[in-house]
Amino acid sequence: MSKTLYLLDGMALAYRAHFALIRSPIYTSKGFNTSAIFGFTGTLIELMTNQKPSHLAVVFDTSAPTERHELHPAYKAQREEMPEDLAAALPHLDRIAEAFGIPVLKMDGYEADDIIGTLAHRAEADGFDEIYMVTPDKDFGQLVTEKIKMYRPSRKGDGAEIWGVPEICEKWGIERVEQVIDMLGLCGDVSDNIPGVPGIGPKTAEKLLKQYDSVENLIAHVDELKGKQQERVRDNAEQALLSKKLATIQLDVPIDCDWDSLKLDEPSKDKLVPIFTEFEFRTLGKRIFGSDFSVQEAANDLVLMSEDDEKATAKGTAPAGQIELLPDIQFKKLADLKTNYRIADNQDSLSELVGELRSAGYFAFDTETTALNPRAAGLVGFSFSTKPHSGWWVPATEASIEALRPVFADAKLKKIGHNLKFDLSVLAEKDCPVEGPCYDTMLAHALIDPEQRHNLDTLAEDYLQYSTIRFSDLVPDAKKGAMVDYSRVDPKALADYATEDADVTLQLWQLFEPKLEETGQAKVFYEIETPLLPVLVSMELEGIVLCEDTLKDISRSFEGHIVELQEAVYQAAGREFNLNSPKQLGEVLFDELKLVEKPKKTKTGQYATNEQVLSSLAPKHKIVADLLEYRQLTKLKSTYIDALPQAVDPVSHRIHTHYGQVQTATGRLSSNDPNLQNIPVRSERGREIRKAFVPRKGWKLLSADYSQIELRILAALTGDAGLLSAFQEGRDIHTATAGKIFEVAPDEVTREQRSTAKMVNFGIPYGISAFGLAQRLGTVSRTEAQAIIDSYFAQFPGIPGYMQAQQESAKEKGYVETVTGRRRYLRDINSSNGTVRAAAERNAINMPIQGTAADMIKLAMARIQKSMSQKALKSRMLLQVHDELVFEMHPDEESTLRELVTEGMVDALELACPIEIEIGTGDNWLEAH
Predict the structure, then answer these.
(1) DSSP secondary structure string, 659-690?
(2) CA atoms within 13 A on the CB side of 335
(3) Which in 46, 55, 416, 603 has the greatest CB count within 10 A?
(4) Which residues, 6+ apart, have CB-to-CB distance to 221 below 8 Å?
(5) Phi-psi map region of 173: left, alpha, beta (phi>0 left; psi -120 to 50 alpha)
(6) Correct CATH for 663-719+849-929 of 3.50.50.60, 3.20.20.70, 3.30.70.370, 3.40.50.300
(7) Residue 893 in contact with residue 875, Cβ under 8 Å?
């Protein structure tokens, strides 16, 4: 058996995991941030299941100073304070490692780098076949040999990277791995506050080391250098040598460690179960880390299964006796409770059920279907509950549907459900409309605790300490997206499964109803989200026509232009290459054409060719402009032109997007299957796609769009006199802004000044920096951009005042609110880590603006739908896209529809700033918009 040692840089992995999830951190129901623990645990399991090392250890730093601090007191001194959430998570990493049977190594006076370096080289001398240093820190490259390699874990699903001698030399531009420390000696290391030689960057250092091999030899030949370079090296020779010493990983740490102690032990079930329970890592393999592994128990030992083993288990070929490790033993199950679950499958029992529902005045219900698409789903049955631990299952028959139709249509009865839009859509498809107040526990929880998961199974565990029957237990062989065959499911098991859902939903509603009041979210729930439910059901049911012939014409046009752009790029480059390969593209632009002197590189050492980099070069180089247009067209073609026809419903022959109410932190609706909100409107080519969306024959489309709604909300929230007066007087806001910040009369504002003002208007309220503004404008320096920002704030003093007030309020309360009271909690607003805190501060400013805009259009949609219904209009609301609503308009109803849409949108929310909308009609969406 081969001897393979893996040494993990624990602190680096924890930092990497925490910041990789900084935009969408993982919290437990109690608000504990588990991002670092999540990522760290994932790395351990990936290594144990896929790499199967014989020896493994996790190495951590301690807080004690090291020799480097004595040599250079400023060593690592500039580092921002560790985020509080990460600091709170670190002690648990030791517990995780111990539970997995992995030793944790640390030693005062030495960094983890030194311990790893010492053990790696000791293992090589002691005959290990392979040694891997598991770390994202590229400085470890100095330790790499033929047997010692760097293992960089996957970060965003892109797979792990293994760096050996060739990779290290290529990435650093050196000839020997030992020269990594010479590179650091010359360039320094900002993250560790290693100074290096001022003015010498990686490219210069690479050239110098090719000529002189080492820092010491360079200093010895400093007289051969010329000009400023000679001066810099001579004046900073001692600093270069100190930097090299600081960067050198020690290989002689006196750590007491024998190889037997690093042999991988079996994980401890007794230790893992409470840890996974504490951090809510339920059914860890599938729910959190995907299908790459499964944690199971075989006999009395814990077994970590690889993907192949798991597939074998699914086929029934795995060793007998293996059961899931995490049966959620801390939660009650159906078998533990005394329940009154009944089946209504005849006229008498149906009558009894209907009587109970009417007598209660409310009920929780759920539908069981054969598919997740309401239009394709077959209705299997209903479940109902009017009190905890009690409920009914009703198989779907013509008789049962007819018996229940009046109950669903009774506007006096309150209906409760979880992800209720799906159930309402299914019943609408079956011509069984649901009237009256409908309360969705998923929406309620999304308002009460927006950062958490909102699925029913999780909420049952978090709030009821109850583990529901899983669908995978009911239908083990069900495939995602496929029709479900219930004929092989035991009828009693199906009845229990379905009734439990209604029962749990009712119990959750009884908890959430008072919590909506306690958290100040009752108004948003009852006045915005709940009235919107039937509107979305109606819109999704209606769909919109896609003219495939028009789309084919657009496709042909795109294809021709794509070929022209491709040929233009080939001609400018002087040869053909793969335009979709970042590596080949970088080589052409920067090695062959040499468009810039010092091109940026990615972390993997390739030239950066992302959109931001190319956009900055496009004004100067036509080949780059052509490349950007090529990328845009190919993306539009694959994402929309080729994909949209596949989304056309075979029965209705229309496209039915699905709207989500809980997917965004600001409250904006999301669109999926297909996503119609991302069809570009700013580019001419992107707008062309809207031509393919058309009304039914003889009708028109009407588009109503809020005009500059977020700027108007900003004016209302800040009360800034300058902004408000511009809107009140009906002036062009960007021209008015340009006139103020450039101190010219409105009629003297140039096109460039207006464009700059537009960028400022849209950017500054969302925390854009001088650097960001300079990048976006592309024509000004950072200093000039800062001057523009300063002038903007001087002319509109209400805006910086608002920004400061919002941040101070958020720091005091821990959350910010929209005008209607929708909250976003900002856990990091008081963080001592500047990067983390700055992100929360930006959210404190922009969420009330974006969220108020989201609330406005939701209120407008409900008002308009109500008015359309009262007037019995034939016209229908079809789409909501950001600040725009699209209607299919009957030709006889234009004046009426225009009037009620205008009134509904303008009066949706009372603000101290006039609201305007733009309305257009046409034979397709583009023409109407």
Answers:
(1) EESSS-TT---EEESS--TTS-SSSHHHHHGG
(2) 3
(3) 416
(4) 212
(5) left
(6) 3.30.70.370
(7) yes
Q: What is the DSSP string of 694-710?
A: EPSTT-EEEEEEESSHH
CB burial class (10 A; 0-12, 13-18, 19+) of residue 750?
A: exposed
Tokens 């969408």 belong to: 24
Name residue 800's amino acid: P
Q: How many angstroms separate the Cα of 357 from the Cα of each of 114, 386, 408, 508, 514?
A: 70, 7, 10, 18, 22
With H, G, I as helix, E, B as strand and everything else as coil, classify residue 437: coil
Distance in angstroms (rounded) separating the CA atoms of residues 556 and 885: 29
Helix axes 35-46, 84-99, angle to 10 degrees: 30
Query: What amino acid occupies position 297?
Result: E
Strand-pairing partners, residue 294, are 305
Q: In what order do the strands lie in the sheet with 362-369?
A: 340-343, 390-395, 379-385, 362-369, 414-417, 438-440
pLDDT in tens, 639-684: 889 999 999 999 899 999 999 998 888 899 999 889 998 887 777 8
544-655: CATH topology: Taq DNA Polymerase; Chain T, domain 4 (1.20.1060)
- CATH 3.40.50.300 is held by the domain 334-519: no
pTM: 0.74
HSE-up of residue 272 (Cα within 13 Å, Cβ side): 26
**184-232 confidence digits (pLDDT tens):** 988 888 778 788 888 888 888 888 888 889 989 989 888 888 888 888 8
